[in-house]
UniProtKB/TrEMBL annotation:
<feature type="transmembrane region" description="Helical">
    <location>
        <begin position="179"/>
        <end position="201"/>
    </location>
</feature>
<feature type="transmembrane region" description="Helical">
    <location>
        <begin position="7"/>
        <end position="25"/>
    </location>
</feature>
<feature type="transmembrane region" description="Helical">
    <location>
        <begin position="253"/>
        <end position="275"/>
    </location>
</feature>
<keyword id="KW-0472">Membrane</keyword>
<keyword id="KW-0812">Transmembrane</keyword>
<keyword id="KW-1133">Transmembrane helix</keyword>
<protein>
    <submittedName>
        <fullName>Uncharacterized membrane protein YbhN (UPF0104 family)</fullName>
    </submittedName>
</protein>
<dbReference type="InterPro" id="IPR022791">
    <property type="entry name" value="L-PG_synthase/AglD"/>
</dbReference>
<feature type="transmembrane region" description="Helical">
    <location>
        <begin position="213"/>
        <end position="233"/>
    </location>
</feature>
<feature type="transmembrane region" description="Helical">
    <location>
        <begin position="40"/>
        <end position="58"/>
    </location>
</feature>
<feature type="transmembrane region" description="Helical">
    <location>
        <begin position="79"/>
        <end position="99"/>
    </location>
</feature>
<dbReference type="Pfam" id="PF03706">
    <property type="entry name" value="LPG_synthase_TM"/>
</dbReference>
<feature type="transmembrane region" description="Helical">
    <location>
        <begin position="119"/>
        <end position="141"/>
    </location>
</feature>
<keyword id="KW-1003">Cell membrane</keyword>
<feature type="transmembrane region" description="Helical">
    <location>
        <begin position="153"/>
        <end position="173"/>
    </location>
</feature>
């Protein structure tokens, strides 16, 4: 009941933020932006997002092998895609990560606690990578403050990343090599998704400082934990962030909507493996 209550809160946050943003959008302006969109760039954005999810599969495999789980790439990809479907389309008590941990522990007779812990570490590395990328973006972010503040924030992000990585290595039964490789995978995933945003910008022919859009995207990724599948919070950050940075708010919001559409499309493919059960073949 506690998990269902938290899920209900997240759905409420998403719906509330979607209502708040959507009622302020100029849908005629958005329709014009979509009409003139370049489908080639949008297709490339979709491909980059798909590649980022393939890298995520490799990262997931890196960590589940630590607890003795051995599955081939095809099975791993199917399980990962089904997890995405659970996360995006099934607002129940079982999230995609929880389902993957349960399915793997049951299929290969492994401790659910150990598998769940390793899945958490794998996801947590993604959050650390976002913080690291934010640190880099601080160096290119236009603000009304002196550049020293940007530099200080970047250094703080870098040092924070190193400290958290060392804590993971010291307190969890995971080798230093595995943590660093997982972190590099996570950085690659974030860079590919930043490039996804870049090509969405190119598709809609939206001008402006691209680094600001990248910054807003990463901030919305961190805050997505308080909403359901990131819906609402991403659009909220892009809409009001654009006002803060003196960008066109409608154009900014359509970027967030487009990314959500790409995520929804890829996640929906996981329904195949909800209908057709995955065979948990060992590698």
């Amino acid at each position: 009941m506690k998990k269902q209550f938290i899920t209900a809160i997240k759905i409420s946050v998403s719906l509330g933020l979607i209502f708040l943003v959507f009622r302020q959008l100029d849908w005629q302006q958005i329709g014009w932006i979509v009409k003139k969109a370049n489908p080639f760039y949008f297709a490339f954005a979709l491909i980059l997002f798909l590649i980022s999810q393939i890298i995520s599969v490799f990262r997931f495999n890196l960590f589940i092998r630590k607890v003795g789980v051995r599955i081939n790439f095809k099975t791993n990809s199917q399980l990962y895609l089904l997890g995405m479907f659970y996360n995006f389309f099934l607002p129940g008590g079982v999230g995609g990560d929880a389902y993957k941990a349960f399915a793997l522990s049951k299929a290969q007779n492994k401790s659910l606690k150990r598998v769940g812990r390793i899945v958490f570490v794998e996801r947590f590395l993604g959050i650390i990578a976002i913080g690291f990328c934010l640190g880099i973006l601080f160096l290119f972010l236009p603000t009304q403050l002196s550049y020293g503040w940007n530099l200080g924030a970047a250094i703080l992000a870098f040092l924070g990343t190193l400290v958290i990585l060392q804590i993971l290595i010291r307190w969890l039964p995971i080798s230093k090599r595995r943590v660093y490789i997982g972190f590099l995978y996570s950085i690659t995933i974030q860079l590919l998704q930043i490039l996804t945003i870049f090509f969405i910008l190119k598709s809609f022919q939206i001008d402006g400082n691209a680094f600001v859009y990248f910054f807003m995207f990463l901030i919305s990724s961190v805050l997505s934990v308080i909403s359901f599948a990131g819906l609402g919070i991403r659009e909220f950050v892009f809409f009001y962030g654009a006002e803060f940075f003196d960008f066109q708010a409608d154009s900014s919001a359509i970027i967030a909507l487009a990314f959500s559409m790409i995520t929804a499309f890829v996640s929906f493919l996981g329904i195949i493996f909800l209908i057709k059960p995955i065979e948990m073949k060992k590698k």
